[in-house]
Amino acid sequence: MRNLIGFPCLGDMLIGTLDSASGSTGLLIVSNGNEVRSGPHRSMSQLAHRIAAAGYPVFRFDRRGVGDSAGANQGFLESAPDIAAATSSFRREAQLRRVVAFGNGDGAAALALFHGQARIDALLLANPVTLGPPPPPGQDQEAGDAAPRGWMRQMIRRSGRKQDAPASITAELTAAFLGAEVPITVLLATRDRIAADFAEFLHKPAFAAAATRIRRKQFDTASHVFAGTADKAWLYERVIEALAEQRTP
Q1: Of the segments 65-74, 145-154, 167-176, 197-206, which one has the largest average pLDDT value?
Q2: How many CB atoms sit inside 10 A of residue 93's CB?
Q3: Residue 138 has pLDDT above 50, yes or no
Q4: Of the candidates 91, 33, 82, 92, the residue with the CA atom closest to the CA atom of residue 61
Q5: 236, exposed or middle or buried, with CB in 10 Å at 0-12, 13-18, 19+?
Q6: Which of 62-66's residues contact partners 24+ apart within 8 Å by CB, and which partners?
Q7: According to the model, what pLDDT value does residue 133 have?
């Protein structure tokens, strides 16, 4: 059964969709960019339906200022309260004992940064966004922002953070991954530019000690959102694996 759920976040009313199932472990989906909770071409809606049919409740939501939710859209860097409120509502409505959270792109980055505040039990992060270098000399800022490696910088400006924030955001992401106390599985599309940036990010010497805790799984595709038929099947299998690991009696 699929139901709309309204829940408060800092004085605004957010809207989520709950796909009910009998399990006490559920999947929270955090949207990428400014996408609504149904996902590109309704891909997250379709994924939610399949996961719920396998026995796991699924919750998708629109953060403040996106889709059906009220408030101002401040970007993923300010989405910690939204994620925490959605997780709390999900736990209550579905009577859950454990929550696995899935996000793609900047939704994945947001989960890495803010999962602790939401008491999430495991992370499944697809093609997380990281900071690329600034545009080359002679290339204007707008052109640089249009490229995948400039995406995080664009989001930083939209969030109202200082222009010199990129280095601090990179440090925050590094600290979040190294300090995480929950299982993390990273899903990478081998021919996606953003995924390639993240793979480079993980090659930092600081991550050597966390190599066994941050699992990496790859699929040969250029689709950032795993849009192909084979991509969707592979993504579904990885989600089911992550949920099964956290399943409670």
Answers
A1: 65-74
A2: 17
A3: no
A4: 82
A5: middle
A6: 62/14, 62/15, 62/16, 62/31, 62/36, 62/37, 63/14, 63/31, 64/9, 64/10, 64/12, 64/14, 66/31, 66/34, 66/35, 66/36
A7: 45
pLDDT, tens digit, for every residue of 58-83?
A: 999 999 999 999 999 998 999 999 99
b/e string for 168-196 if b means 16 or more Cβ within 10 A? ebeeebbebbeebeebbbbbbbeebbbbb
**Unique residue bearing structure tokens 């099947």:** 233
pLDDT recorded at residue 213: 76
As a 3-state breakdown, the chain gives helix, strand, coil percent values, each rounded to 5, of 45, 20, 35
- Look at phi and psi of residue 10 and say left if phi exceeds 0, alpha if psi is from -120 to 50, else beta: left
Please give the structure tokens belonging to residue 80.
């910690």
pLDDT digits (tens, 9 = 90+) for 85-95: 999 999 999 99
What pLDDT was estimated at residue 148? 44
Q: Which residue has the tokens 């859950």?
A: 96
AA identity, residue 154: Q
